[in-house]
Amino acid sequence: MPQEWTLGVQVSDRRRGSDRVAQQIQDAVAAGALTVGERLPNERELSRLFGVSRATIREAVRRLETEGMVQVRRGVTGGTFVSQPDPGRLGLALLALIRFGEATAHDFTEFRAGFEPETAWWAAQRADAADRLQLRALADDVMARAHIEDLPWPEFAAGDIRFHQAVADASKNPIRVAVMLAVHEAFRQSSATIVGHDSSAWRIDQARQLAAVAAAVAAADAGEARRCMALHVQVNAAAAQAALESDTASAPRGGDAAKNWNKGDGQHG
């Protein structure tokens, strides 16, 4: 087995040492020095190669296992094997970065304004028959929810979230899939924003916007898909901004609604 990726980690702090070991293994996978399915040396050998304690190696392996970078198998034929992290794990990791990074509502709005229309553009280019059927079905589901009287807002928003994730899936880009998962989970856990605009007419309009995106993807019209998604994001951004300004105006002096928007239970569109 090549050993160029096992540079010595000479640090006294065990946590920093484990982080650096984990990072070097991740870098080795990215560079192709380690491949998916390859078995890592055992704990004792890794300890020798990296120049750290076995406890540090165990901590690094636990971190990599949590992140989906390695799989630990027990038994005679077991060991630690390089694995391919799935988009869900990547998305949750990004969510943690977003939430602990003090991201504001404006940051998310700015990101979505560029990211989601481009994701729709790629979806129109790459969607297969199953993707097109799925988007149409999800748009129809949102419209059906819009016509259910007294349906709680979170249940309506859940249909919207599924549609956006399906657009990312249709883009066939695993990075977009992972990022979309993280972004929409953050919105799911955010404080109430556009719920003040909620009404039957609002929900129907939202459903129509999503149906337009689905139709453009089905027609493989990338430009129209991007335009329709941009409109949808813009409409929701304007509603969110209005709600944020209203909350800020009514907040106690010293409050910071923009920074604390991601600590509640509201939804998005």
Report on this structure:
With 269 residues, the chain is mainly α. It folds into two domains: 14-82, Arc Repressor Mutant, subunit A, CATH 1.10.10; 88-263, Four Helix Bundle (Hemerythrin (Met), subunit A), CATH 1.20.120. 66% of the residues lie in helices and 3% in strands. It has helices at 14-31, 43-50, 54-66, 87-100, 105-126, 129-146, 153-170, 174-188, 200-218, 222-250, 257-260, and strands at 70-73, 79-82. It has a two-stranded antiparallel sheet. It is elongated.
Question: TL;DR of this structure?
Answer:
This protein has about 270 residues and is mainly α. About 65% of the residues lie in helices and about 5% in strands.
Unreliably modeled segments:
8-15, 253-268
Cα(first) to Cα(last) distance is: 50 Å
The CATH topology of the largest domain turns out to be Four Helix Bundle (Hemerythrin (Met), subunit A)
CATH class designation of the largest domain: Mainly Alpha
- What percent of residues adopt helix (DSSP H or I)? 55-70%
| Overall tally of domains | 2
- Tell me the β content: under 5%
The oligomeric status of these chains comes to: single chain
Q: What is the H/E order?
A: HHHEEHHHHHHHH
In total, the number of strands is: 2
Helix and strand composition category: mainly alpha
